[in-house]
C-alpha cells in the first residue's frame, strides 16, 4: 500500500496569487501616503499604545484566512492505494540447477554458476504472480525451496547456491524427477521445469528420458539449458585440501545437447544453449515470453479528506480578526 497527497480541485490553487498581490498593494499604498512633518511639535505627540502598534496584525490575519480558505477549497486529501494481484492464472515453475564442480568453469563471467544465479534472480523478480521453487542437483538432488510466491526466501537460497554441497557428478535424471515430483499435483494452467546443466548425465539411478516421460504424463513442460561455451574452457580440476584453493585447467566443453533436446522435445519444451552471460539472459527472456501468466491487477483507492485541517483554522483566525476590528479598533477595514 502507498499513500499520496493530492488536491481534488487543484486548479483552485491558482487563486493563491491573490495573497502576494494584496501584500504588494498594501506596500505601495503605504509608500504613497504623504506625511507632513512639523518641527518642534514632538512633545505634543503621545506615545502609541500597544493596540495601535498591533493594528497591522489584522491585515496579516486576513491574508492567513484567505490562504487557508483557498487551500481548503482545493480539497486536499490523502489517497491510500492498495494493489492486489490475482495469481489464480499463474504458472508453477521449478528451477533445477546443476551445482556440480564443473559449474565453476570460467567461460562465463565470472563463472557459470554465478552468471546463472544473477540471470535467474532477475527472471524470478519479473514473474510476480507465479509460484516458483528451487532444486539443486549434482549426483543427488536437494529441494531448497518448494513452490512459493515468497521472492525473498527464493532469492536468498539462490544466492546461497554453491558447488561441492552435494555428492557425485551430474545426475540430470534425478534433478528432473525431483522437480516433477513437486509439480505433478499442481492445479495451475501450466507447469514448467527449467533444467540447467553444463555437462553429461553420468550419475544417478533415474535415467533422464525416463524422468522426461513422467513429466510428459503429468503435462509438465521442460525447458533445458546447456550452460557453457563452445571449444575450451577453464575447468576446476583439483583442490588444495589445506587451503581450499581450486586449480583450473583448459579442457574441452562437453554438453550432451542431443539428450537435452530430446527431453525438451518429449515434453513440449525447448532447448537452449548459453555460451555467455548475455545469451543466458536472452534465454530467460525468451522463456519469459513463451510462458506468460495472466496478471490481473486490482487497485483500490481510499480517500481521506483533509480540507477541515485548513477550513477550521481559517474560521478561527477570521473570528479573531473580526473581534479585534469590532471591539478594539472599532473598524471593519
Automatic annotation (TrEMBL):
PROSITE patterns: VWFA. SUPFAM superfamilies: vWA-like. It comes from Apibacter muscae. The lineage of its organism: Bacteria, Pseudomonadati, Bacteroidota, Flavobacteriia, Flavobacteriales. InterPro entries: Aerotolerance_reg_N, UPF0353/GerABKA_families, VWF_A, vWFA_dom_sf. Gene3D superfamilies: von Willebrand factor, type A domain (3.40.50.410). This is VWA domain-containing protein. The chain crosses the membrane at residues 6-25, 307-328. The keyword RNA-binding does not apply. Keywords: Cell membrane, Membrane, Transmembrane, Transmembrane helix. Coiled coil: none annotated. Pfam families: BatA (PF07584), VWA (PF00092). It comes from the Bacteria. Residues 92-287 form the VWFA domain.
Amino acid at each position: 500500500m502507498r499513500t499520496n497527497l493530492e488536491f481534488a480541485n487543484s486548479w483552485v490553487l491558482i487563486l493563491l496569487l491573490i495573497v502576494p498581490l494584496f501584500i504588494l498593494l498594501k506596500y505601495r499604498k503605504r509608500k504613497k501616503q504623504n506625511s507632513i512633518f512639523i518641527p518642534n511639535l514632538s512633545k505634543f505627540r503621545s506615545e502609541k499604545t500597544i493596540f495601535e502598534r498591533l493594528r497591522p496584525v489584522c491585515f496579516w490575519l486576513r491574508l492567513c484566512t484567505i490562504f487557508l480558505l483557498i487551500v481548503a477549497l482545493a480539497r486536499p486529501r490523502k489517497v491510500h492505494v492498495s494493489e492486489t494481484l490475482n495469481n489464480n492464472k499463474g504458472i508453477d515453475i521449478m528451477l533445477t540447477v546443476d551445482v556440480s564442480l564443473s559449474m565453476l568453469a570460467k567461460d562465463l563471467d565470472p563463472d557459470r554458476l554465478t552468471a546463472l544465479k544473477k540471470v535467474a534472480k532477475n527472471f524470478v523478480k519479473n514473474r510476480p504472480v507465479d509460484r516458483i521453487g528451487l532444486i539443486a542437483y549434482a549426483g543427488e538432488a536437494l529441494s531448497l525451496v518448494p513452490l512459493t510466491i515468497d521472492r525473498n526466501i527464493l532469492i536468498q537460497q539462490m544466492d546461497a547456491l554453491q558447488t561441492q554441497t552435494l555428492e557425485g557428478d551430474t545426475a540430470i535424471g534425478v534433478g528432473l524427477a525431483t522437480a516433477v515430483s513437486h509439480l505433478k499435483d499442481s492445479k495451475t494452467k501450466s507447469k514448467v521445469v527449467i533444467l540447467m546443466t553444463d555437462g553429461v548425465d553420468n550419475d544417478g539411478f533415474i535415467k533422464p528420458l525416463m524422468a522426461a516421460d513422467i513429466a510428459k504424463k503429468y503435462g509438465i513442460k521442460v525447458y533445458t539449458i546447456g550452460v557453457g561455451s563452445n571449444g575450451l574452457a577453464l575447468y576446476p580440476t583439483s583442490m588444495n585440501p589445506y587451503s581450499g584453493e581450486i586449480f583450473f585447467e583448459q579442457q574441452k566443453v562437453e554438453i550432451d545437447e542431443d539428450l537435452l533436446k530430446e527431453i525438451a522435445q518429449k515434453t513440449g519444451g525447448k532447448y537452449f544453449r548459453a555460451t555467455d552471460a548475455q545469451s543466458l539472459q536472452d534465454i530467460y527472456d525468451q522463456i519469459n515470453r513463451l510462458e506468460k501468466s495472466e496478471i490481473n491487477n486490482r487497485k483500490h483507492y481510499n480517500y481521506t479528506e483533509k480540507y477541515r485541517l485548513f477550513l477550521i483554522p481559517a474560521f478561527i483566525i477570521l473570528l479573531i480578526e473580526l473581534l479585534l476590528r469590532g471591539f478594539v479598533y472599532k473598524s471593519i477595514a
